[in-house]
Amino acid sequence: MSYLCPLCHLPLLPLATGLRCENQHQFDRAKEGYINLLPVQHKRSKQPGDSADMMLARREFLDAGHYQPLQQKVCEIFERILPVHSSSVLDIGCGEGYYTHAVASRLQARGESTVFGLDVSKVAVRFGARRYHNVDFCVASSHRLPFAKQQFDAVLRIYAPCKAEELARVVKESGYVLTVTPGPRHLIQFKALIYQDVKLHDETPEEMAGFELVEQHSLNYPMQLTSEESGALLQMTPFAWRARPEVWGVLATTTQFDCETDFTLRLWQRKSIEADVIAPLSSAEEAVVEAPATDDDTEGEGMA
Q1: Is the dihedral of CA 26, 28, 29, 35 positive or negative?
Q2: Is residue 293 part of a domain?
Q3: pLDDT per residue rounded down to tens, the chain (304 residues)
Q4: I need a surface site. Which of 89, 126, 158, 250 has the fewest CB within 10 A?
């Protein structure tokens, strides 16, 4: 199982120092072990994705175990649905690898499993590759997955953007996509600090062409956070951009901050490949597909 060249889409072949395709596009392997497959022309900013400060905040919060119930629920679902002896999994928007590593450890304990972690943030991938050595990490865009057709038994997508067409391309027939999105009351106490009009998260499932929704689970529980932990969690969310200085002040001076988690897990199964009725792309449409993404390049666990 290997990567595709992000420039010409030919298979990348191994070299002593990295990967190279037949068209001589070469990608060096970083000293931490990951591969950077995000060409400069596919970036929307100099350093897309999460910053080092955001990664440090995320690692501090996740290491405290507050999201371990979600981590274990994801692992349980994959362990139940995937083949025992061999499986291939991709984590899109893997961040620093907290969930990716747990899935890899659970699956590899019972048989041969290959787990890939992909994120647009080089900082995040570097964090993951340094700590977790049972995952193949790469820097790449979720809008242009550098993988072959029908390569994965399952894909994990926690808050990360990715077009359904790309998921349908890389997931095997009858394979799965597991998505995690905010439930209605997720972190509502943070919202109350920031917004005058607090709205619940929308529960409407997304459209996933080529897939059938086969399971849906809710996971919610209270958290009691220290001032440092509440600040770290806020830093992990899009709410941080809207938080006024006084909000940070409240968290810094609150010994215990009580809040709710509320996650929605949806399991989607790939429909029969023969049932696909997607017509071949015209030359003009292919050009649009290969154009730089217009979606937000920030991938990963941004909604915390």
Answers
A1: negative
A2: no
A3: 589 999 999 999 999 999 999 999 999 999 999 999 998 655 554 555 567 777 888 898 999 999 999 999 999 999 999 999 899 999 999 999 999 999 999 999 998 999 999 999 999 999 999 999 999 999 999 989 999 999 999 999 999 888 899 999 999 999 999 999 999 999 999 999 999 899 999 989 999 999 999 999 999 999 999 999 999 999 888 888 889 999 999 999 999 999 999 999 999 999 987 666 544 444 443 433 333 333 334 444 445 7
A4: 250
Could you tell me if 29 and 35 are in contact, meaning their C-beta atoms sit under 8 angstroms apart?
A: yes
Tokens 């899009």 belong to residue:
238
| Domain assignment of residue 105, yes or no | yes
DSSP for 185-227, please give it. TTTHHHHHHH-SS--PPP-PPPP-TTEEEEEEEEEEEEEEE-H
Domain count for the chain, please give it: 1
Model pTM?
0.87
Tokens of residue 154, six digits: 């399952």
**Which CATH number fits the domain that encloses residue 197?**
3.40.50.150
Q: Is residue 112 part of a domain?
A: yes
Does 290 reside within a domain? no
Phi/psi of residue 288, nearest 5 degrees:
-65, -40
Using CA atoms, how far apart are residues 229 and 97, in angstroms rounded to an integer?
19
- The answer to whether 191 touches 198, Cβ cutoff 8 Å, is yes
Distances in whole angstroms, Cα of residue 219 to Cα of each of 46, 68, 208, 269: 36, 12, 22, 21
DSSP category for residue 150: T
Say whether 143 sits in a helix, a strand or coil.
Answer: coil
DSSP 271-283: PPGGG--PPPPPH
